[in-house]
Amino acid sequence: MRRPDAEARAAAERSGRRAELLAACLLTLKGFRILARRFRASGGEIDLVAKRGRLLVLVEVKARRSLDEAVFAVTPRARRRIARAGRAFVARAPGLADCAVRYDIVAVAGLRLRHLADAWRE
């Protein structure tokens, strides 16, 4: 039998994966090609890496009860973590070196999504 905290973590994991799937679908509909999901590098992780033309988008996906809660859940610490992972991703893919890099947030609340393009600058 699972402990209550393990069950909560498992539910949060399922919710996060569902939110990432919805976000990937939204970005695909907007003409982006998903290059990576849950990219991990030392010191950071990126939920989604997408590309459209010469634009590389590093996306943080947040699921909360409201869209505003989801947007405000992306802390300065998370932004630094995503930026570190983004630099690692570009370093591993030299063909992307000439792409413009943008940081986006996709907020998810139930089936509602909000895509904040250029949510912050490094």
UniProtKB/TrEMBL annotation:
Concerning Gene3D superfamilies, the annotation shows: 3.40.1350.10
InterPro entries per the UniProt record, alphabetical = Restrct_endonuc-II-like (IPR011335), tRNA_endonuc-like_dom_sf (IPR011856), UPF0102_YraN-like (IPR003509)
- Pfam families referenced in this protein's UniProt entry, alphabetically: UPF0102 (PF02021)
GO terms (molecular function) for this protein are:
endonuclease activity; nucleic acid binding
Alphabetized UniProt keyword annotations:
Endonuclease, Hydrolase, Nuclease
Taxonomy, superkingdom? Bacteria
Query: What family does this belong to?
Result: Belongs to the UPF0102 family.
Protein name, per record: UPF0102 protein SAMN06297382_0466
Q: What is the lineage of its organism?
A: Bacteria, Pseudomonadati, Pseudomonadota, Alphaproteobacteria, Parvularculales
